[in-house]
C-alpha cells in the first residue's frame, strides 16, 4: 500500500501516515491504512484472510530446550566430565590388568554426577513459564463488529482492522485505538506502573511521545477496563502489541548467573585442569618408579592408573556443589519463615551481595491504597485524622454528604469496588464514624451526571429531607469557577475573589506535597433548576481534600537499614515525577545531591551519559518497561549486583534481567512471579532486608564450607611426597573416595546450619569481583599444611618405625586413620568467630545457639570411621591392617594435632582471622588507634592489634594520667 499523506498542525509540511504513532493518526487515516470501516467493520471473508496471513492473536511461545538436553548440558560441565572419565576408568582399567572392576567407586562417583546434574537442570526448568503467564491474561472472547453486525468471537481470532466494543470489567484483548469513549477509565498499573486508573478519550495527539501513560487515546492488551464503555480499532495483534514486545523481551532476556555460580564454575574448571594434569604426572611418576624400583612396589599399571585417578578425585571438591545447595536450602527454609519465598537456590547468595535495589513504588514502597491525609473547609488545612463533625453545622453536614453521597464505591467484607479516589473518601468517612451506605439509603439519589474526562467532575442529586440537593466533587479548576458562595461559621456567605485565591493557594500547597486534590460543593435546587437540570451553577463550596498512596512505615525503616548496610535504593515508577519525588523524600530516597529523571529525559540520554549520571539518580518516573530493563543493564555494567522489585507485567523483563528479581506475592501478577527469583509473601519492602541479611550469612557459611572442603584435602600433597620418598602411595583409591565423598560431606553440610550473625547488616556489601578465597586463604593454608604433615608422619611411622607384617599396608592404614578422623576434631573451628557480645554470652545462651547439627555430624562421622576401621569384613574392603599399640598412640596424637595447630594459629594470628570474620575490623582498628594515639603509647601499636588488650591498656594509660595530673 502506498503511504497516505496527512497534514499536521505545521503548515506546508506533510508527514507520512506510517511515520506516525497510532495515537497521532486520525480515525480516517487509520481506516485507510487498515482498510476497514468504523461503522461496519471488516467483512467475515476479509477477517479470515487476515487471520490466515497474520496468525492468531496469541503471544508467541519461546523455543524451549528439552529437559534431556539440559541434563546433557550438565554432564558436559568440566567437573562432571572429569568425574565421568574417572568412573569409566575405575571399571575399565582393571579388565586390562586381569583385576576386578571397582564397582563401589563407580557407583559413588556416578551418584555424585547425577545429583549435581539434576540440581542444575531443575533450576533451569523453573524459569520457563513467564510468557505463559502473560497469555493467561488475555480475554477468552471479544465483542466485535463484522459485516455491520455485532458478534462475539474468540479473542485469538482478532485481526488488525477489527472494530472492538469494550465494557466495564473486561480485559483488553489487543492494542486498540479508541473511536468513541464514554467515561472510560483503564487500570494500566500492571503495564505502566501508574497507580491511578487512566481516563481515556479519543482526542488526537499531535506531539510524539514514547510514554505509554501519555497515549490517552490508546488502550493496550491485557490492561483492564475499570469503568465506562468504548469502541476502538485493533491496530496491533498480540505478537506486535506492547504486551507482545514485553513477552519477547522476557523470552530474549537471559537469566543472569549468580556471582557464586560464576566463582564456583571458575573454581571447578581450574581444579579440574589441575586434577587432570596432576593425575597424568602422578601416573608417569608411578610408572617410572615401577620401572626403576619394581622390587619395592610390584604394583600393576592398572592399579597405578586407579591411584592416579583417585588422586584427581582427591583434588576435585566433588561434594562442593551438593554442600552449597544444601546450605542454600537451609537458608531458603529460614527465609520462608520470614515471608521470603526463594524459587532458585542461588538467589539466596546473590541477595546477600546486592548493593542496589531498584524498587517499584506502587504496592511495594507504598501501601497501594489511596488515603485521605489532609482536608480544608475554606480555612486552615488540617490532618484528616483531626476532623471533627458538628451535627448542626451546615458546612460539616454537606461536606460529609458530598463525600459519601457523590460516591459510587462499595465496600464489604469480601469486596472493595470503586475508583481509588472514591474508596479513599469512603474509608475516611468510615474511620470518622460515618456509615456511607446508611447515608445513601437515607438520602436517596434521584439523578446524577457521571464523571467524564471533559468535565472532570461528578454530580449527584439527592433527596435530603424535603429538599433536592446537588452534590459535586472533582477537579478544583473546574468546580471553583462555578462556586459563588461558601460556608463560614455555619453561615452561607459570598465567595470573594480573595477567598478563591486562598482556596487555590491551599490546594497548591497540597499539590506540592504530591497530594491528589479533590474539591466538594453543594447546591439546594429550586423546582425550576431541577426541571431544567441546572445542576452546575451558583454552587456552595464546602472544602477540599488531599489524598495520596502513602509510603509504608516499615519501608522507611528498611531503607535506613539498607543505606547503613551500603545498599542503594532506587525508585522506578510509572507515576508523575512530582508524586514520585514527594514519596521518595518521605521514604528517605531523595537526599541532598540526588535527582529524579523521567522516561522522556531518559530517552534523550545515551548509555554513556546515563552511566555517568545514574549514581546520582534516586527516582525514575513515567517509565516504560524497556526503560526498566535499560536501567538495570546500566547498573550491572558498572559492576553492581542489582535486585529489582515489582508486581506488574511491565516489571517482568527487568525482573528476569536483574541479578535478583523480587516479585510481590499478594498483589503481583503471575508474569512477575514467574520471572522473579524471589517472591515476597507479604508484599513488604522491609522483608527484603531480612532476605539480604540471610543471604549475607549464607555466603559466609558457603565460604567457610569451601575453606573446610579444600583445607581438609591434604591427600595429594601427602601422596606426592611419600611416593617420591618411598615409592609407595599412602592411600588407596577406596580410602580417598571414602573420605572425599562421605566423611568430608557429612562434616561440611552442618556448617550451613550454624546460627546466623545478627550484626551482618552493619557491614558493607561484598564486592562482586571479590575472590571466593578472600579472607579464608589463611584457614585453608593452616588446615591443609597441618593435616598433610600429620598424614605424612603417620605413614612414615607405620612404614619405618612400627611396621607390621606388611609395612606398606601398615603405613597406609595409619595415614588413612589420620586423614579420616582429624577433620572431626577441627571442623568446629571452621566458622566465623563471634563478636564481643557473642563471646560474653552465658552458658545457657551458648547451649541454645550451639550448632547441634554439626555436633551430631561429628559423632556420626566418628562412628562410621570406627565401623570402617574395626568391623570385620568392612575393614577388608578398605584394606585396614592391624596396628601396634605404640603406633596407635602416635596415630591418635597425629589425628588431633591439626586441631591443636589450627587453634593455636588462629589465636596467634587473630588480626588476620578477624579480617576473615569482619571486613570492617581494619577500619575499627585504625579509628581506635587514632583515638588513643599519644606520644607515650605510640610504640604500643602491637598491643592495639589485639582487641582483648587495647581497651584495658588504653584505660590504664588514661587512669594513670588522671592520677598524676596537676590540678589547675
From TrEMBL:
One of its GO terms (cellular component) is plasma membrane. Keywords: ATP-binding, Cell membrane, Magnesium, Membrane, Nucleotide-binding, Phosphoprotein, Translocase, Transmembrane, Transmembrane helix. GO terms for molecular function: ATP binding; ATP hydrolysis activity; P-type sodium:potassium-exchanging transporter activity. It is found in: Cell membrane. It is a multi-pass membrane protein. GO terms for biological process: intracellular potassium ion homeostasis; intracellular sodium ion homeostasis; potassium ion import across plasma membrane; proton transmembrane transport; sodium ion export across plasma membrane. Pfam families: Cation_ATPase (PF13246), Cation_ATPase_C (PF00689), Cation_ATPase_N (PF00690), E1-E2_ATPase (PF00122). Belongs to the cation transport ATPase (P-type) (TC 3.A.3) family. Type IIA subfamily. This is Cation-transporting ATPase. The lineage of its organism: Bacteria, Bacillati, Mycoplasmatota, Mollicutes, Entomoplasmatales.
